[in-house]
Design goal:
- By secondary structure, the protein is α/β, with parallel strands linked by helices.
- Among the domains are: 168 residues, FAD/NAD(P)-binding domain (3-Layer(bba) Sandwich), CATH 3.50.50.60; 99 residues, 2-Layer Sandwich (D-Amino Acid Oxidase, Chain A, domain 2), CATH 3.30.9.10; 74 residues, no CATH class.
- The chain contains 14 helices and 18 strands.
- α11 packs across α13 and α13 packs antiparallel against α14.
- The relative contact order is 0.16.
- Bound molecules: flavin-adenine dinucleotide.
- Flavin-adenine dinucleotide binds next to α2, β8, β11, β14 and β15.
Amino acid sequence: MERDIARLAAPVYDVVVVGGGILGACIAWDAALRGLQVALLERGDFGAATSANSLRIVHGGLRYLARGDFRRMRESIRERSALLRIAPTLVEPLPVLVPTEELGTRSRAAFRAVLGLNDLLSLDRNRGLTPERRLPAGHLISLEECRRRFPAFPSEGASGGAVWYDARLRHPEGLALAFVRAAVEQGAAAANYCRAHGPSISDGAVTGVTATDVLSGEEFSVRARRVVVAAGPWTPGLTRNPPAADDPSALPQAFALNVEIPGQRTDVAVGIRSRSGRRDDPIGGGNRYIFIVPGESTTLLGTWYAPWPGGDPEPLIGRGAAALVEEFRAACPGLVISSGDILRCHWGLLPLKAGRESGRPDALAAQERVIDHGAGVGPAGMFSAEGVKFTTARGVAQRVVDRVVTSLGLPRTRCRTVEVRIDDLGDTSKAPPEALLRRALREEMAVRLSDLMFRRTTFGLPFAAAPLTVAAVARIAAADLGWSPAREAAEIDDVMRQLRPPGPTVGPGG
Ligand SMILES: Cc1cc2nc3c(=O)[nH]c(=O)nc-3n(C[C@H](O)[C@H](O)[C@H](O)COP(=O)(O)OP(=O)(O)OC[C@H]3O[C@@H](n4cnc5c(N)ncnc54)[C@H](O)[C@@H]3O)c2cc1C
């Protein structure tokens, strides 16, 4: 996987994809696998924006069951199985535990019925999965068992617990990168640190995009018959005329935040009802489940939502982190946390319904938005795609590529991304760190120190990296990439800024 800008500027591609988050990466992989000539541009590093900041749960859609939304539930079940099948080293089963109550819609009887129905609707969930990736049936457990599995289990008012199985992303950025790598191995041309400005248009139809190589400052054009903008929260800005590439607030968005605390406090994800009502939780609607999710050696707590006002995110990050800690202190006192425990805040922007789908306009969007702009007032050949979940990105990509293939007048080829494994790099766990770094630098397009620390390796995790470790990695990168001492120091500063507790942030553009 080589960062070859000259190659991007050379031929006429069938499609250029703007945005290398999980959705753009899946679109590029699917299109390349179907034989299209594909180019992919990412203005930062692959998977480093919203896709790096999820709660890492691959949802099987149990929540949709409660709303009677069987279509979305089946879609989530299918996509959860697909990820467990195609990326078994990066996605693993995750037990989820929630308290049951004595009476009402959260009683044991109610949960028994829900878990039974969930199992029935997901009878095919383990098709094609290796035994260690198969998801067992849901079941009820006693209060004692709840406390054994999660010692901080909030017992007040609980009659026991309900357990079902979803999946966990071990390293979301690694998964996005695996899709990009697979696309490139299939012939796609991809480059990180290339900012697209918007589509080039001639006679009412797209002819490609213009872009800037952020590393060299040079402008170039990518010629393509179709343009797909999959730039997450920046999509509405990029598809406006004229484009506003840096403006994520062209439409109302939700700010969403998780915090990460040290130590793996649980090996089962735990969902607890929050105490805040609608007034303090305008996006989520109040009294919803908040989750404690095991990381590799840390624990994630989330999610806090607020309307995104635009501008500087820092005040919102501080307010959200404090509010989230208070939520967990109230709902799960046994967890014993304070704001001082926060290692890192993960935040991102998510689309709202905003009148484009039914329901409260200030609630999180529930449906993907795939638009053929040429069918409206936009240029012919331009598509945009906004997903609502990491879980379902592969499926959204499939539908986007179906439309691109049809619009190109090509025969509809079968999508194979549900079956082709993408993470088969062999066992790197025993590879010496220097070998991993060299491979990342020479074969995986790592060009910044943060790419190496957080996305090509997990050396920057669990955020306890001493300056010496960061400096040692920086020295290897500097020697390989020919960095000046000043550049090396700036790269170290950038990583240390992201590691610094308690106010460091990873977020769009972070
Ligand atoms: C706090 C939080 C928790 C979440 N938890 C979960 C969860 O547990 N499970 C789940 O399934 N989903 C979860 N989600 C949702 C999920 O993370 C997102 O739906 C998904 O990551 C969006 O992916 P994307 O590729 O559309 O966007 P992004 O990851 O933002 O990718 C868009 C990319 O476009 C690039 N870009 C922007 N402008 C340009 C330009 N001009 N030129 C080139 N590139 C450009 C950006 O740099 C970015 O990398 C969560 C989200 C948040 C914020």
